[in-house]
Amino acid sequence: MFRVLLLLCAGLSLSTCDITVPQDFSITLSCLPDDATSLSEPEYTWSFTSAQTQQQHTLQEKGKILNLRNINTTQEGQYKCVQDGFKEEDRMRLSRTFTIRVEEPLALREWQVIKGVAGNDVTLPCKAATFSSSGETQNDSVVWKRETKNGVMLLKPDKNTDGQEEDKTPQRIFWSENFPDRKDWAIKISQTKEEDAGMYHCVITNTSQTLSVELELEAPPLPRCFGHTGPWEDCQEQDSRSGTVILQDSLRDFSASMYAELKALKPEANLIFSPVSIALALYNLLLGARAETRTQLESALRLPPEFSCVHYETKKLKKVIKDTLEIASAIFYSPEQQLGEVFVNQSKEFYDAVPEKLTDDAEENLILINQWVAKKTNQKITQLMDYMDPTYTFILLNAVYFNGKWKTVFESTNKWDNFTTFSGELIEVQTLYSPKYNLQMGYNKKLQAEVAKFPLTGKNSLYILIPHTTTEKSFVLMENNINKDSIEAMISEMNKIPAQTAEVTLPKIKLTVDTQLGDVLKKQGLSDLFSDPNLCGIFQEDSKSFISEARHRAFLSLTEKGVEAAAATSISFSRSFSSFTALQPFVLILWSDEAAAPLFMGRIINPLNP
Predict the structure, then answer these.
(1) Bridge-partner residues for 78, per DSSP?
(2) Which residues are CB-contacts of 208 (< 8 A; sequence separation ≥ 6)?
(3) Residue 571: which of 400, 409, 419 has the closest Cα?
């Protein structure tokens, strides 16, 4: 393959042309310019005078064009072309001379590039490829130099003394930890500055080796909280109903996703939780989340990205259901942390939650948290935590309390009946019984379950879902069909069914379920909350705080008086036709028409288990 150079001679003279050509290129010389008058019957003669020997000889080329391929320094000199011919009847000659100079390519220069960040330490390597005849290179024959605007500066690396110099002169350049290795003379520059960037040379004088290193330094990154400490943005559509619909829709979706995750933790255990309570606590945390942590929380909560009205709509929701559900959220944090004033104010505005400082005593903190929970749950949960790790820096708590009365009262009888487990074992349990109970019942094809709707005081209802057989396979199939769409369809369908009078038997229930939310939240895409969350809206500086504990404890009581639930609870019973008997494993949903979402969800596998 030839590298061809197109040459154009520009100047006042048509008889001479000076050309500089890179070595190994090919060139084409034309005896006459394109616009020159050609002689008739032309004959061409090319000659070459070497610039090195000054000897002239005639070339074999006889045409108008002379091609020189892969030109080198031996081809430097003058190339003369003579055209012999006639101009009308007169014999004439035209000549043109080219002076060719060959430019040798620059020597290839190689160096290593080290990239770093200003403020960090960097190591510039220097390992010799060859050695002196003795096999070693003395330390005093190795010098480091640096190119500067004013020339080359000699560096004087010090022995590494962990940054403690013998004199008062600040020293930032040291021999590396391998010193005095006779084959490695790397240097370390500590606490680099942007002006340290440039070219460095390690010169091994007795072997004539020069190893070059270019140091590139980036400016240190901005603090993580830079631009993220401002308040949560204002809701621009406070009078729009769309915000309320968005929050309700996301709550239903979040409830179904949480049920799917929680039921998988302990497939054969009772489950009670309050999706509303968990969501409200995470909304409070979302208030101070920024950047990627905000995005992850919005996704886990099934909220649209950058839904600015979430806190405004949550405040409205709390007012709507305040007569049904008592809600409290709290954040306890280390006294070493300094919370942002904006977060404190907005947390109080939207969630009635004033973050509280932990003390230096772990036992006192344990009492503080459990007393808070007991008060907010009407003493139904007196011990949320049984241990307080002294290293905890951030604790997220949530508490809710629900007390709903049956609209149709059960008889106060000491009636007992058999509850059938998955294995077929019969467990004698105390029951609630009514020979004439007014409720709505039906079979739901999507859920493959019998569903009963028990009206409670306020705009609340207790839904109970029972599979068509007592086998675990039927129950799992029913559970797997529970999702946002199937719940919405079930609520809509049940509201269209007229109420009827039926004989009803339900097991009395009083149990508490403790759930560690850590694994569940991680599966929802919130792993960063437990490792490296961006909570710059909460903390004034990037304090590297993370959630140490996310715990949820639920209490459920189902008696003749009604449904009582605390913290995070879910209640649901079901059956159809002229009688409804929930004496087998079932799923329960405590629904609020005002919230258009579940307040509690759960399942009863064994009523006697704690």
Answers:
(1) 49, 99
(2) none
(3) 400
Do 4-103 and 112-131+141-162+171-218 have matching folds? yes
Domain boundaries, given as residue ranges, for the chain:
4-103, 112-131+141-162+171-218, 242-404+513-555, 406-508+568-604
Number of H helices, E strands in the chain: 9, 31
CA Rg value for the chain: 43
Q: Return the top range by mean pLDDT from 224-228, 271-275, 336-340.
A: 271-275
Among candidate residues 422, 415, 417, the one with its CA nearest the CA of residue 585: 422
Is it true that domain 406-508+568-604 has CATH number 2.40.30.10? no
3-state secondary structure of 5: strand
Nearest to 348 by CA among 278, 287, 275: 287
Q: Can you tell me the mean pLDDT for 457-472?
A: 91
Task: Evaluate the CA torsion angle 454, 460, 464, 465 in order and state its sign.
Answer: positive
Q: Tell me which amino acid residue 119 is.
A: G
Within a 10 A sphere around the Cβ of 68, how many other Cβ atoms? 19
- Nearest CA-CA partner of 196 in 111, 254, 119, 266: 119
Q: Which fold has domain 242-404+513-555?
A: Antithrombin; Chain I, domain 2 (3.30.497)
In the three-class reduction of DSSP (H, G, I as helix; E, B as strand; rest coil), residue 362 is classed as helix
Reading phi first (left if > 0) and then psi (alpha if -120 to 50, else beta), residue 24 is in left
Q: Identify the pLDDT of residue 384.
A: 76
In terms of average pLDDT, the best of 117-131, 298-312, 400-414, 539-553 is: 298-312
Q: Are 116 and 216 in contact (CB under 8 A)?
A: yes
DSSP assignments along 73-105, one per residue:
GGG-EEEEEEEEEEETTEEEEEEEEEEEEEEPP
Please name the helix (run of DSSP H) or strand (run of DSSP E) that holds residue 369, with its range, or none: helix 362-376
Max CA pair span of the chain: 143
**Cα torsion angle, 585, 590, 596, 597, sign:** negative
- The CATH code belonging to domain 4-103 is 2.60.40.10
**Helix %, strand %, coil % for the chain, to 5?**
20, 35, 40
Q: Characterize the bridge pairing of strands 500-507 and 579-581.
A: parallel
Q: Is the dihedral of CA 317, 319, 324, 328 positive or negative?
A: positive
How far is Cα 311 from Cα 328, in angstroms, rounded to an integer?
15
Mean pLDDT of 542-548: 66
Q: What are the tens digits of pLDDT across the range 171-193?
A: 899 988 766 656 778 999 999 99
Query: What's the fold here for domain 112-131+141-162+171-218?
Result: Immunoglobulin-like (2.60.40)
245 Cβ neighbours under 8 A, 6+ residues apart: none
CA distance 481 to 66: 86
| C-alpha span between 145 and 212 (Å, rounded) | 9
The rounded distance, in Å, linking the Cα atoms of 151 and 143 is 16
When mean pLDDT is compared across 13-17, 362-366, 499-503, 588-592, the lowest value belongs to 13-17
Q: How far apart are CA 185 and CA 537, in angstroms?
A: 48
Q: Are strands 56-58 and 16-22 parallel, antiparallel or unpaired?
A: unpaired
Sheet containing 151-155: which strands, arranged edge to edge?
A: 112-117, 209-218, 198-204, 142-148, 151-155
β-pair type (271-273, 356-357): unpaired
